[in-house]
Design a protein that fits this description.
Keywords: DNA-binding, Transcription, Transcription regulation. This is AraC family transcriptional regulator. GO terms for molecular function: DNA-binding transcription factor activity; sequence-specific DNA binding. It comes from Sphingobium fontiphilum. The protein is built from ten helices and ten strands. With 293 residues, the chain is an alpha+beta fold. It has three domains: 180 residues, Jelly Rolls (Sandwich); 44 residues; 59 residues, Homeodomain-like (Arc Repressor Mutant, subunit A), CATH 1.10.10.60.
């Protein structure tokens, strides 16, 4: 039985989904935005056939574990934080048994032609299960915030935000596909990201990453920046702080050991970087987490 993208499955599979709710919604000019929650409670699988462009972002901070397959992909993909599915293509999906909260954005060709003056830059776009693009992510999160707490002239603002997100998606999609600028394949950026996450305790120079990924130093930096919108250095710094937060959530490791496992040369360097990123020292962060728990 054909079914729609992940966040819409609840309408056709009520036996498998519990607590479905649309928390906020906006629609205008062939564009629909909404924030929704639902809980997959029984295993299921099926086909997806979206009729409009579909873009969503996870709002609960947890990694999605739903599996998608497409004729455009050599292998199945796990849905990441940001998912994009072009219309009129068949997908196969198997959702994970988990509770989700998403911002969902769907739009048709009329919306694109209005934004891009009778052209459609996403006409040949390929599906992306895990878009790593900082600018697009910021646009989507801003829309979610405005939908949740709309202010003055929320409608025009949301439409403008949606246009900005669509422009960023189109730029990124063309960058991925355009051979004139040097094709950037999603799996290359994913491999770089995996290499970084697996080696956060080491020094992680760009040349080391390049050797591990079979790429030149120049191409590593270019590919990652083009595909994600952030530099490798900024991404490494963010990953190290995120890893430190996870480790500081418990008292199992001393702060000095957390520092070492996150790739900092000294506890003082770790403390300075952590404070710059979070506004508090590692010790204060651990104490605050302990009180909240």
């Amino acid at each position: 039985m054909p079914i729609r993208p992940e966040s819409d499955w609840s309408d056709l599979n009520s036996d498998f989904v519990a607590d479905f709710a649309i928390l906020a919604r906006f629609a205008a000019h062939d564009l629909t935005l909404d924030v929704r929650t639902y809980d997959w409670v029984r295993p299921t699988a099926g086909q997806l056939l979206p009729r409009r462009h579909y873009l969503d972002i996870s709002l609960d901070g947890a990694m999605r574990r739903s599996v998608l397959r497409s004729e455009r992909w050599a292998e199945p993909q796990y849905s990441g934080s940001v998912l994009y599915l072009p219309p009129n293509a068949l997908y196969w999906g198997q959702p994970a048994l988990e509770r989700r909260k998403l911002l969902c954005m769907s739009f048709g060709d009329a919306f694109l032609e209005n934004v891009f003056e009778d052209t459609n830059p996403l006409h040949h776009a390929i599906p992306q299960a895990d878009i790593q693009n900082g600018a697009l992510r910021r646009h989507l999160l801003a829309m979610a915030g405005e939908l949740a707490a709309p202010g003055f002239a929320a409608g025009p603002l949301l439409e403008a935000m949606a246009i900005a997100a669509t422009v960023e998606l189109a730029r990124w999609s063309q960058l991925i596909e355009d051979p004139a600028t040097g094709t950037v394949l999603p799996h290359q950026a994913r491999r770089i990201e995996e290499c970084i996450r697996e080696n956060l305790s080491s020094a992680l120079s760009i040349s080391d990453i390049g050797r591990a990924c079979g790429m030149s130093t120049r191409n590593v930096a270019r590919v990652f920046k083009q595909a994600t919108g952030v530099s490798i250095g900024d991404f490494i710094a963010r990953c190290r702080i995120d890893l430190a937060k996870d480790m500081l959530a418990s008292d199992e490791l001393r702060i000095k050991e957390v520092s070492w496992r996150c790739g900092f040369r000294s506890s003082s360097a770790f403390s300075a970087a952590f404070r710059a990123a979070t506004g508090m020292t590692p010790r204060d962060y651990r104490m605050r987490r302990g009180m909240l728990q």
